[in-house]
Amino acid sequence: xxxxxxxxxxxxxxxxxxxxxxxxxxxxxxxxxxxxxxxxxxxxxxxxxxxxxxxxxxxxxxxxxxxxxxxxxxxxxxxxxxxxxxxxxxxxxxxxxxxxxxxxxxxxxxxxxxxxxxxxxxxxxxxxxxxxxxxxxxxxxxxxxxxxxxxxxxxxxxxxxxxxxxxxxxxxxxxxxxxxxxxxxxxxxxxxxxxxxxxxxxxxxxxxxxxxxxxxxxxxxxxxxxxxxxxxxxxxxxxxxxxxxxxxxxxxxxxxxxxxxxxxxxxxxxxxxxxxxxxxxxxxxxxx
Length: 288
Known about the structure:
By secondary structure, this protein is an alpha+beta fold. The chain folds into 3 domains: 3-78, Rossmann fold, CATH 3.40.50; 106-169, 2-Layer Sandwich (Dna Ligase, domain 1); 176-276, ATP-grasp fold, B domain (D-amino Acid Aminotransferase, Chain A, domain 1). It is built from 7 helices and 13 strands. It has helices at residues 16-27, 61-72, 81-88, 90-99, 112-119, 211-224, 263-276, and strands at residues 3-8, 31-36, 53-57, 77-78, 107-109, 131-135, 145-147, 165-169, 176-183, 186-193, 205-207, 228-237, 243-253. The strands form 3 sheets. A 5-stranded antiparallel beta sheet has the order 11-10-9-12-13. The protein has a 4-stranded parallel beta sheet with strand order 2-1-3-4, sandwiched between helices. Helix 1 links the parallel strand 1 and strand 2 (31-36). Helix 1 packs across helix 7. The protein is globular and about 60 Å long. It starts with a strand and ends in a 12-residue tail after the last helix.
């Protein structure tokens, strides 16, 4: 039996994960300690005693600080605070993705004046489908705004509560996104309705794995050092509907694994494997 500490951002308590992982670990007889970022004194030093692995579901500052403490105690973690921070910050994430060689949207960073300078000279033909304005520290499409043309940047102002922003070209695709879900060695592909499409919702659908998607997942895994993550992709289409390329929009740490059969058990097995062998290395494989 292993002792697993789950660091929980409170907003995820009722979601599919980490509830499914916790059930799977408990079913196999492992002890699970849940520490929430809403606790008055989360994860004091004594809480880490005898813990074999720490798993984080969340990206709040409190969760990341607890992850730092776990790593300071030399406890194996899923995932490291550094890895989670690298995708929490969309500015850092966009730079890493751009350097990875993957197809990514054109992206601009800066304050209001810098963005207007960068985008003011863009012709509508250069961004025919408009632009997306995103909070650098946003998630779940919260705070995302679409601008019809580059010239609309001249009129936008961020509210004081928004913080830093980035701007990306909008890639419409076909109204759905391809989500690549990764748990250690395994990769799945799921088609999901785009939160920005505004079309009738469709049920998430598992897709057969393509070699190009597997390459995307592995490239992101190597770039960010994550064990458990999702990659949001949009298929760029030609006017005749032909697939031009799969564009990587962003990477998210520890998703819910919507529509992935057996995700709970895969997550539990990854945790147990890391408990048995903290130096366990990733091997190449995929699932569909």
